[in-house]
């Protein structure tokens, strides 16, 4: 279904809103039009939407996320070290048992084997997750994806006669 053609007033509003720094999505919402309609009209008028701020915000967010992943990896490794120390430390073992469900506790020199196995499993999980977080940033492939997308967009622009934004 074809959309209703833009009026001259709407085209002027697009010019004015663009000049005021509004993005394509904002203009589309404000005029109650589809984003693609606004984008085509802006292109016809000779306007382009600068994506530099979006790129900067995206890069900043990615850097923040990388820092959070690095901190989490460090915290997980610290947790693993603290947990591993418990393998050889005195502890209290306890149970509820018998027909009267009586609580019993005893101090032992180190955890029983089953508890040591559970501790080692948890330590292994923490170390594995820390390594995965570290590997994610080392091999996320963002450069390859950006290069692939850039090549794709350049090809589309060349085919359709558009020039990339400066």
From TrEMBL:
* InterPro entries for the chain: Homeodomain-like_sf, IS30-like_HTH
Q: Which top-level group of life is the source organism from?
A: Bacteria
Every Transposase IS30-like HTH domain range: 6-40
Matching SUPFAM superfamilies = Homeodomain-like
Which Gene3D superfamilies does the UniProt record give? Homeodomain-like
User: What protein name is recorded for this chain?
Assistant: Helix-turn-helix domain-containing protein
Tell me the classification of the organism that encodes this protein.
Bacteria, Bacillati, Actinomycetota, Actinomycetes, Streptosporangiales
């Amino acid at each position: 279904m074809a959309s209703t053609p833009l009026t001259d007033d709407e085209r002027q509003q697009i010019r004015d809103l663009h000049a005021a720094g509004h993005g394509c999505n904002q203009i589309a919402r404000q005029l109650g039009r589809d984003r693609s309609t606004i984008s085509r009209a802006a292109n016809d008028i000779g306007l382009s939407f600068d994506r530099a701020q979006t790129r900067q915000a995206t890069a900043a967010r990615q850097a923040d996320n990388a820092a959070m992943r690095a901190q989490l990896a460090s915290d997980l490794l610290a947790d693993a070290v603290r947990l591993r120390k418990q393998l050889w430390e005195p502890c209290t073992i306890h149970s509820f048992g018998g027909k009267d469900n009586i609580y019993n506790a005893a101090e032992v020199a180190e955890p029983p084997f089953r508890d040591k196995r559970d501790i080692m499993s948890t330590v292994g999980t923490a170390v594995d997750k820390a390594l995965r977080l570290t590997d994610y940033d080392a091999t996320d492939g963002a450069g390859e994806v950006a290069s692939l997308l850039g090549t794709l967009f350049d090809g589309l622009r060349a085919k359709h006669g558009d020039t990339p934004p400066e």
